[in-house]
Specification:
This protein is about 15% helix and about 45% strand. By secondary structure, the chain is an alpha+beta fold. It folds into 3 domains: about 1-240, no CATH class; about 250-340, no CATH class; about 360-470. The strands form 5 sheets. Strands 27-26-25-24-32-31-30-29-28 form a 9-stranded antiparallel beta sheet. It has an 8-stranded antiparallel beta sheet with strand order 16-17-18-19-20-21-22-23. A 6-stranded mixed beta sheet has the order 10-9-15-14-13-12, with no helix packed on it.
């Protein structure tokens, strides 16, 4: 839920619309939020119902306490870089009655604030403590979170217990941070999912730590709850991170490619460490990494983290705008993987260039395939004379409308590939989209590039036609 609302805030106040295949989209027209909220306020049973889809259709989001006793509904109702929120609180009081009112659970109707999470700490024999995470977007870059513990007394919320640190007590703990910095460093938004956390098995509360530039470090202040107050016990690594990676100073980057989950940390001695996990769809940072490389440095001119592995062999993790992972040997790329965000962006640009390809390669009978590899774009067409033609671009050249760097013809096709010869080299283009594009010199394999996306005839023609019509 948090990611949805905060992404909307980053977009300058636009409401987030949720869509699902086969279902209608967001309810259009003014007042859809009010219609939904009237239903919530008029029907006490809604507190026990899953209203995620109904709320999304109305442009509303909500967070719920772990025991299901409290919900806070909210939507952006105005403002620009500093968002204004409308909030409705729904809860079950100590007598079991469901109550609902406009405003925040503790601070009334302050439109600059909303609640992004509700944590809960149990107290044996006593009512639980609810920890409300209040959020304010003060500008296009500044975000603030304050965590307030509260309990239900009769039919109202009361502040407490307190936080104790260095001999002083406070009613809340908070953090100010640079929103875009954290958003783009933490796997394009993953960071929102663990702004604060409470671990019931330890009774530990994790609150993120920022440096003097309001950059979240990826480390947390930890408070232990003893049933009476939250006592500060020091700075710890995040709870979800594998124990072998706990010793670091600053989390630099987390990204996903189609093959890896990648994490880069700055260490206490100023060097950098990279951890890799396979299968990013299922891998978690709590798993033991399959590969850890230390002793890295940051190349500020090239905008990349460099991790030497052996003589002339190194990993490179590109930063921010060119996010991705690659390995090089003597300056030549062994493999390259874009972050998923970058890959999707490039794929869209490539698909938009298909009409230009048609214009350059006019005299063909039918398109057979387009392969997007780690470094190249390959197109194979059948020709009117019965030959096959290969046109090859670098990835940048394909989307920039450049002429192909290499054009070869051949009549040689095996069961699984097209084979082209030119300049003393042999180029083997697989028909399948799950193989490697290989280049040979005699019987020596010079390079093999993994195919990451394949387009077949119907899709090639459709994309070309659609773009030409557009």
């Amino acid at each position: 839920m948090k990611k949805v609302i905060l992404a909307a805030a980053l977009a300058g106040g636009a409401l987030w619309a949720c869509h699902e295949a086969g279902r209608p989209g967001l309810v259009e027209g003014a007042g859809s939020e009010e219609i939904f909220i009237k239903r919530v306020m008029g029907d006490t049973a809604t507190l026990s119902q899953d209203l995620t889809w109904d709320a999304a259709r109305a442009g509303v989001d909500y967070v719920e306490s772990p025991d299901g006793s409290i919900r806070v509904y909210r939507w952006i109702s105005g403002g620009g870089t500093c968002a204004f929120w409308t909030t409705v609180t729904q809860y079950r009081d100590t007598k079991g009655r469901v109550r609902c009112f406009y405003g925040l659970p503790l601070f009334g109707n302050d439109s600059l604030l909303t609640v992004t999470d509700i944590l809960m700490a149990d107290r044996p024999g006593k009512p639980p403590v609810y920890l409300f995470c209040f959020y304010c977007k003060a500008s296009s870059t500044e975000g603030y979170n304050d965590l307030y513990p509260a309990v239900l007394q009769t039919d109202t919320f009361a502040l407490g217990p307190k936080f104790e640190r260095d001999g002083e007590t406070t009613e809340s703990v908070g953090i100010g941070y640079d929103i875009p910095d954290w958003y783009f460093r933490a796997n394009d938004g993953e960071g929102w999912e663990w702004m604060c956390a409470y671990l019931p098995d330890r009774n530990w509360l994790y609150v993120p730590v920022a440096d003097e530039d309001m950059r979240l470090t990826g480390r947390h202040d930890v408070y232990a709850f003893d049933g009476r107050c939250f006592r500060y016990i020091g700075v710890r690594a995040p709870y979800y991170l594998h124990a072998s990676l706990h010793d670091f100073a600053f989390m630099e980057k987390v990204l996903e490619t189609d093959r890896h989950l990648v994490r880069v940390d700055r260490m206490r001695d100023g060097t950098f460490r990279m951890a890799l996990w396979n299968a990013p769809d299922t891998a978690r940072q709590s798993d033991e990494p399959v590969w850890v490389v230390g002793g890295g440095f940051f190349d500020s001119l090239a905008g990349k983290y460099v991790f030497p592995v052996a003589k002339d062999l190194q990993y490179e993790c590109r930063d921010l705008s060119f996010s991705g992972l690659r390995m090089t040997y003597r300056g030549k790329t062994v493999f390259a993987e874009d972050s998923r965000e970058m890959f999707n962006r490039y794929k869209k640009e490539l698909e938009g260039s298909f009409p230009q390809m048609d214009g350059m390669l006019q005299d063909y009978a039918a398109p057979l395939l387009v392969h997007l590899t780690e470094r190249h774009v390959l197109r194979v067409d059948s020709m009117t004379d019965g030959c096959f033609r290969l046109a090859a671009w670098t990835r940048a050249g394909a989307v920039d409308g450049m002429r192909p760097e290499r054009v070869l013809r051949s009549r040689y096709k095996t069961e699984g590939c097209y084979v082209f010869n030119g300049g003393g080299f042999q180029y083997v283009v697989p028909i399948s989209g799950t193989d490697y594009f290989c280049v040979y010199k005699g019987n020596t394999l010079l390079s093999g590039e993994r195919i990451v996306q394949t387009y077949f005839p119907e899709e090639i023609e459709r994309l070309g036609k659609n773009e030409r019509k557009g």
